[in-house]
Amino acid sequence: MNGKFLLDTNAVVALLRSNATLIQTLQSAEWVGVSVITELEFLSFSGLSPRDESVFQEFKNRVDVIDLQSSDNKMLMRIIEIRKQNNLKLPDAIIATSAIENNATLLTQDADFSRIALLSVQDF
Fold this sequence. Notes:
Layout (H helix, E strand, L loop, with lengths): L3 E4 L1 H8 L3 H8 L3 E5 H8 L6 H11 L3 E3 L6 H14 L3 H12 L3 E3 L13 E2 L2
Parallel strand pairs: 1-2, 1-4, 2-3, 4-5
């Protein structure tokens, strides 16, 4: 493993619920990030409590949030390519590309990501 990890939304939820495996994996990580899509998915959850939102904001201050810029043509083209080749939903294609572009392993429990050739995926 390369020590760089991008967390899918389900990994963020598990981490904030004190998942021991994730905590252990991330303790020695050299870099941890989330896609802006993960941030939006988490914060738009209908059952989110004010406490959950506060904990997420604290978490967000400790990781890098990978934005999506309309001027980043390389990333946009890769998102389109990954979406078309793997028949993914657009948010998942953005998350996968965010991991690839940052040379990070995607921590997720979503098996759909495992079929993307360039993507390093780790279940927890």
